[in-house]
Design brief:
By secondary structure, this protein is mainly β. It has two domains: about 1-225, Single-stranded right-handed beta-helix, Pectin lyase-like (Pectate Lyase C-like), CATH 2.160.20.10; about 245-485. The chain has helices at about 1-20, 40-50, 125-135; strands at about 20-25, 30-35, 55-60, 60-65, 70, 75-80, 80-85, 95, 100-105, 110-115, 120, 155-160, 160-165, 170, 180, 185-190, 190-195, 205, 210-215, 220, 225-230, 235-245, 245-250, 255-260, 265-285, 290-315, 325-335, 360-365, 370-385, 425-430, 435-445, 450-465, 475, 480-485. The protein has a 34-stranded mixed beta sheet that branches. The chain is elongated and about 75 Å long.
């Protein structure tokens, strides 16, 4: 991990030392917030790239633009007080292959956006203008949801090498805020994301990248905060580190696998803080025929979230089985909320989703014949509200068949509605190890702390559950074998 960080920081340093500085004003780029600068900015980027590379520097001001493309060996530097402002006209944005964004790179090398300035997408206005054009019949809403999927990202980095985003502020995207797709040697460091302008405002999306570091970022997003995806069957996320970040979200804070056609390997989630998050602090999902293996989650602090830990296998696309193996989750401190953690925020999570239900436990859930393998949960302290009501949406330990399999469902911690445990529900798993795990329920709950169903070859040491009127820690179904305590 230290080697990865050093390599990426060296790449950034070399780019800095070899760069020649060019000022935006020299290309006639205006900072008055009203002049459309798209052509001037693109001309500057093209010129700098053709001259061998350098930095395009923006001083204090508001620079209005449509889509611009980063080219080889060019870094945009937004100084403090400089704001790159996205046009609100849908037709000022253009697509290039998979990239559709205000700022994008496609097949570039040695590119970046750095500085203390801002990229503001004016996303709410952009999205509403897209909706207006849909109403007029000029743009199609293929999903029919009233929020078209084909809206511009704020930043989209595609098939590029040696990419740096450092220090900048990303605000108000019309869609996902910053997507890195099939990039190699990616550094996202000290970036602030504040994106609650519209639906689907993911913070940082990492798609099938190799050698990536997301470090010391702050993410406030209406949708998933830091989200790893795999869109391509022939590649995967490989050697990705998410470290020292702070995240708040109206979906999940750190999630990967919602879209998992290829896979995820050698993923490290280290020393992150999550708060006021509507769904899971950490969600690891293998549901689209891909794989998840060799994952470390270490030192995660989660305050006022609806769920702490959610691991699941599904089978949404075709017949190819998904796999999830060798995951370690350690040194987690979590406080689960009894109320809606993101209440009152713009575009908060859907109020009635998967209701009615009692508070959900953490979950490690495979499928029959497709077990989760090799999950270790160590040195964790998890605080739950408890208070499960046996007269309300009851599913007891003698009614495990009422918990559906749901292989094709969109994966969320609440998808099963009612679960028969208040701490952990573990089903279709093998080689699970719990060691030094403490669970506390603030209020009495009719459910045991831990329920095991079709769990094999697993060990539970120094697991303590504290709850008023507790009736024991475990329920082990007859389908389990080789459970050691």
């Amino acid at each position: 991990m230290k080697k990865t960080i050093t390599i990426l920081l060296c790449i950034f340093s070399v780019m800095q030392l070899s760069a020649r500085d060019y000022y935006a004003s020299a290309f006639g780029i205006k900072s008055n917030g009203t002049t459309m600068n798209t052509n001037s900015i693109q001309k500057a980027i093209d010129f700098i790239s053709e001259e061998g590379g350098g930095k395009l520097i923006f001083k204090v001001g508001r620079y209005l633009t449509g889509t611009i493309q980063l080219k080889d060996n060019v870094t945009i530097e937004l100084g403090e007080g400089a704001v790159l402002v996205g046009s609100t006209n849908p037709y000022d944005y253009r697509r290039d292959g998979d990239a559709f964004a205000l700022v994008y790179a496609n097949g570039a090398e040695n590119v970046g956006v750095v500085g203390l300035g801002v990229i503001d997408g004016q996303g709410r206005e952009v999205a509403n203008n897209f909706l207006s054009q849909i109403a007029n019949g000029f743009i199609k809403d293929n999903l029919g949801l009233g929020r078209p999927a084909d809206r511009p990202h704020l930043v989209y980095l595609c098939k590029s090498r040696n990419v740096t985003l450092k220090g900048i502020n990303l605000r108000n995207s019309a869609f996902w805020t910053c997507t890195s797709d099939r990039c190699e040697n990616l550094l996202i460091e000290g970036v602030t994301v504040d994106s609650r302008a519209f639906w689907n405002n993911d913070g940082l999306d990492i798609v099938d990248c190799k050698n990536a570091l997301i470090h010391k970022c702050f993410v406030n997003s209406a949708d998933d905060g830091i989200c790893l995806k795999s869109h391509h069957a022939d590649v995967c996320n490989d050697n990705v580190t998410v470290r020292d970040n702070v995240i708040t979200s109206s979906a999940s804070a750190i999630k990967f696998g919602t879209f998992g056609v290829g896979g995820f390997k050698d993923i490290k989630i280290i020393n992150n803080t999550v708060y006021d998050t509507f769904r899971s602090a950490i969600a690891i999902e293998s549901v689209d025929g891909g794989f998840v293996k060799d994952v470390l989650v270490d030192s995660l602090k989660s305050l006022n979230t609806a769920n702490a830990i959610f691991l699941i296998i599904g089978q949404r696309r075709g017949s190819k089985p998904s796999t999830l193996e060798n995951v370690t989750i350690r040194n987690v401190y979590a406080e689960i909320s009894s109320t809606k953690p993101d209440y009152g925020l713009d575009y908060e999570g859907p109020t009635m989703e998967d209701e009615p239900r009692n508070i959900c436990p953490c979950a490690i859930v495979g499928l029959e014949g497709q077990r989760v393998h090799g999950v270790r949960v160590e040195n964790d302290e998890l605080k739950f509200p408890g208070g499960g009501d046996p007269t309300y949406a009851k599913v007891g330990v003698k009614e495990l068949d009422k918990v559906p399999e749901m292989p094709t469902a969109y994966p969320e911690f609440s998808q099963f509605k009612e679960l028969p445990a208040w701490g952990f529900f573990i089903r279709h798993a093998e080689g699970v190890v719990f060691e030094n795990v403490r669970m506390t329920a603030a209020n009495a709950d009719y459910r045991p702390a831990v329920v095991l169903d079709d769990v094999h070859g697993s060990t539970f040491r120094s697991v303590k559950a504290v709850s008023p009127k507790s009736k024991g820690t475990y329920f082990v179904s007859p389908s389990c074998t080789s459970i050691r305590k």
